[in-house]
Amino acid sequence: MASVVRGIFKSIKEKGIGNFVRELREEGYVSCLADGNLLQTKIHNIGATLVGVDKFGNKYYEKLGDTQYGRHRWVEYAQKDRYNASQVPPEWHGWLHYITDHTGDELLLLKPKRYGLEHKENFSGEGDEYIYHSKGHTLNPGQRDWTRYQSWQPAKKE
Amino acid sequence: MGLGLLASRALRSSRILRSPSNGGPTYFLRTIVSTPELNNADAAAAVQGNPPPPPDLPKRNPVGGARVHFPNPDDAIEVFVDGYPVKIPKGMTVLQACEIAGVDIPRFCYHNRLSIAGNCRMCLVEVEKSPKPVASCAMPALPGMKIKTDTPIAKKAREGVMEFLLMNHPLDCPICDQGGECDLQDQSMAFGSDRGRFTEMKRSVVDKNLGPLVKTVMTRCIQCTRCVRFASEVAGVEDLGMLGRGSGEEIGTYVEKLMTSELSGNVIDICPVGALTSKPFAFKARNWELKGTESIDVTDAVGSNIRIDSRGPEVMRVVPRLNEDINEEWISDKTRFFYDGLKRQRLNDPMIRGADGRFKAVSWRDALAIVAEVMHQIKPEEIVGVAGKLSDAESMMALKDLLNKMGSNNIFCEGNGMHPNADLRSGYIMNTSISGLEKADAFLLVGTQPRVEAAMVNARIHKTVKATHAKVGYVGPAADFNYDHQHLGTGPQTLVEIAEGRHPFSSALKNAKNPVIIVGAGVFDREDKDAVFAAVDTIAKNNNVVRPDWNGLNVLLLNAAQAAALDLGLVPESDKCIDSAKFVYLMGADDVNLDKLPDDAFVVYQGHHGDRGVYRANVILPASAFTEKEGTYENTEGCAQITLPAVPTVGDARDDWKIIRALSEVAGVRLPYDSLGAIRSRIRTVAPNLLEVDERQPATFSTSLRPEVSQKVSSTPFTPAVENFYMTDAITRASKIMAQCSALLKK
């Protein structure tokens, strides 16, 4: 506990009090006071190894040793106010769920360049424009043109 | 040990015991037939040797519901097919006898409209007292013949033939366009063996380039020679032939050459395998995905019966429908391949030309309001209506009624000329009828090139000339014929010579029993058309062309709308109406000459394609094409036929008659019909023959009632009526395939 307090004072000295408060808010130390899940993650993080950070900023931690097996990998979401499991990209999903021991950074090398789609989190309940619509769906903006004839263009006037 | 295995063991041992073992070891005999008694022909024959059961079989009907025609009742003979007695006329083949008995014999090379080749051997049947199975397509049936089509020998023969055919046939049915409608596929399922013994490499053949319409995959060819016989016998071009012998045998053009026939697409239909398929249709659809709609072709005046195969909103292909009186089972290349024009250059929104000369899409309400407003501001005699060459009878009736209600009587159909004679129906239809041409023994073609004007009529003439060596005389510009003909002259002067008996060909006409004179519809546009028709009438009178039992005086029309337009009386009041018109209603008319039209005239174009007519238009009203509507069309022989909608209309387009009906309502001169049925009852009062669908209505009065004319023929030679066979109307001009054809095939 004393080391934590010492660390806090050290960083206040380095960054100044304004920067320190802002960082405190961004890292979620403020919202964790009201959010038990986040608070527990923060407490969990103490002494754990940071395995990687994905492109969204989610942090993946691992703590071997005195942790119960099966609860030794976890994620701290980049978003502190609105987080859910679908924010984990597929390359990290396997590592996080003990499907593989390869980290997301390693698996990312296997991702096909040409047709691999960007990961999108699940926007259910966030409004129609966020929801995935199949290519034939009326609300899909990239909908296929099913017109099977070519109309005469008046601009081609002789 | 299973029962089956036991049985096969017993069978094999008995075979070894029985087989005479002619030197070679016979311990391994691999059977390819699953029924054991078929392995031994002798045993099979012995089983069949029993007296056949008395013919108490149920009455059988001929294949396809065909009727048997006995030219001479005395020549009927009786044969037995599978013990069932049938009466057939003398001279029929065994295969035809079987068909009449209701037994469909498998065949590849035999086609009932082509000569007999007898080279595929698929139609082998057993005939009693014949040592070998006989090829039924080439064997004439003899009295008392006992034909067996279902015996083990016949089955084994078919299996053997099928095995040989499949030996060199590629196994590419999944990527073959014929898949699903392939004779070889069907017959190998029905008659073939379940396995083959061929383990070597298959033969492969280089594909031939036959042009933009027919795709060839010659490795699939089974050398039935149907296409070769079709080309020489029906199409009349000696383009295709058989090269090489044995396994080196191929169909080809010998020298690299395109197939230059206007009927070449039909080889796609007669090819029993996927060797000749449609190039534009290649890999586009499977035949079981398509919806067939039985309709009528409108690209020429023949009115060929077609089936429009569509998938969803697209016309995927056009194939012929059997009609013995009109097109038999062939259609021309234009009919078969113009369909891609239906998807290009379509008018899909009503448009108004703004002050800046550009078109702007508007709603139907606005477009009709403007047309109605302008129509009321113009004097009735300055309103002109022109029906296009693809118009159906119903919309022409509606247009005529609308203009008459507005007070104008200036309405005509393009192609009929400015002063057509619609009084005598016999003066503008084909009085002999298309199938009647086969009885003719002398032809006089006046200013018509049937090969490009009406390919199916030309096919009939070719058939007649080939069968009876009928003489053909031709007056007109130098043209391409695919049968023997005499080019008598280029101008109407030659007609006068023939009429006066000074020409050598007049004796040929005089000696003919059933002479036929065919006048082309291109004559309608000539200044001296009455004199030409008078000369033709004189020839007809001198040579006894029109008799009670024979009417050989014909006019060959060019467009699908012409005959119906004349029947409905679409005749302009004055032949100068275009020059003084202030309001022109073009109903799909693209080829009418608008050069003399005053600049301030208001032009309404109602049609389905952005073609020539659109560029002068002030208002465009989008209409549906013939594949999208129901409409009556009368063909050149006076037979009314109905098209049916195969695909939905495009965009905001409407049926022609509905547009005119709506316009009449907006203009305040409401037409008294709201449905096709109501229009047809209106047509009944004008031209009742248009309601006798699918039945040719001959003309009642002969052309001898025509008034005398004092006009003299001019010396101007006849001009070709159709410049380009492949591009004659708005749809064909929009088609890419037709453009390709005219670039490659038109010399």
Automatic annotation (TrEMBL), chain A:
<keyword id="KW-0813">Transport</keyword>
<keyword id="KW-0249">Electron transport</keyword>
<keyword id="KW-0496">Mitochondrion</keyword>
<keyword id="KW-0679">Respiratory chain</keyword>
<dbReference type="Pfam" id="PF05071">
    <property type="entry name" value="NDUFA12"/>
</dbReference>
<keyword id="KW-0999">Mitochondrion inner membrane</keyword>
<keyword id="KW-0472">Membrane</keyword>
<comment type="function">
    <text>Accessory subunit of the mitochondrial membrane respiratory chain NADH dehydrogenase (Complex I), that is believed not to be involved in catalysis. Complex I functions in the transfer of electrons from NADH to the respiratory chain. The immediate electron acceptor for the enzyme is believed to be ubiquinone.</text>
</comment>
<protein>
    <recommendedName>
        <fullName>NADH dehydrogenase [ubiquinone] 1 alpha subcomplex subunit 12</fullName>
    </recommendedName>
</protein>
<dbReference type="InterPro" id="IPR007763">
    <property type="entry name" value="NDUFA12"/>
</dbReference>
<comment type="similarity">
    <text>Belongs to the complex I NDUFA12 subunit family.</text>
</comment>
Automatic annotation (TrEMBL), chain B:
<protein>
    <recommendedName>
        <fullName>NADH dehydrogenase [ubiquinone] iron-sulfur protein 1, mitochondrial</fullName>
    </recommendedName>
</protein>
<keyword id="KW-0479">Metal-binding</keyword>
<dbReference type="Pfam" id="PF22117">
    <property type="entry name" value="Fer4_Nqo3"/>
</dbReference>
<feature type="domain" description="4Fe-4S His(Cys)3-ligated-type">
    <location>
        <begin position="153"/>
        <end position="192"/>
    </location>
</feature>
<feature type="domain" description="4Fe-4S Mo/W bis-MGD-type">
    <location>
        <begin position="290"/>
        <end position="346"/>
    </location>
</feature>
<dbReference type="InterPro" id="IPR006963">
    <property type="entry name" value="Mopterin_OxRdtase_4Fe-4S_dom"/>
</dbReference>
<dbReference type="InterPro" id="IPR010228">
    <property type="entry name" value="NADH_UbQ_OxRdtase_Gsu"/>
</dbReference>
<dbReference type="InterPro" id="IPR036010">
    <property type="entry name" value="2Fe-2S_ferredoxin-like_sf"/>
</dbReference>
<dbReference type="InterPro" id="IPR050123">
    <property type="entry name" value="Prok_molybdopt-oxidoreductase"/>
</dbReference>
<keyword id="KW-0411">Iron-sulfur</keyword>
<dbReference type="InterPro" id="IPR019574">
    <property type="entry name" value="NADH_UbQ_OxRdtase_Gsu_4Fe4S-bd"/>
</dbReference>
<feature type="region of interest" description="Disordered">
    <location>
        <begin position="44"/>
        <end position="66"/>
    </location>
</feature>
<keyword id="KW-0520">NAD</keyword>
<dbReference type="InterPro" id="IPR001041">
    <property type="entry name" value="2Fe-2S_ferredoxin-type"/>
</dbReference>
<feature type="domain" description="2Fe-2S ferredoxin-type">
    <location>
        <begin position="75"/>
        <end position="153"/>
    </location>
</feature>
<dbReference type="Pfam" id="PF00384">
    <property type="entry name" value="Molybdopterin"/>
</dbReference>
<comment type="similarity">
    <text>Belongs to the complex I 75 kDa subunit family.</text>
</comment>
<dbReference type="Pfam" id="PF22151">
    <property type="entry name" value="Fer4_NDSU1"/>
</dbReference>
<dbReference type="InterPro" id="IPR054351">
    <property type="entry name" value="NADH_UbQ_OxRdtase_ferredoxin"/>
</dbReference>
<dbReference type="InterPro" id="IPR006656">
    <property type="entry name" value="Mopterin_OxRdtase"/>
</dbReference>
<dbReference type="InterPro" id="IPR000283">
    <property type="entry name" value="NADH_UbQ_OxRdtase_75kDa_su_CS"/>
</dbReference>
<dbReference type="Pfam" id="PF10588">
    <property type="entry name" value="NADH-G_4Fe-4S_3"/>
</dbReference>
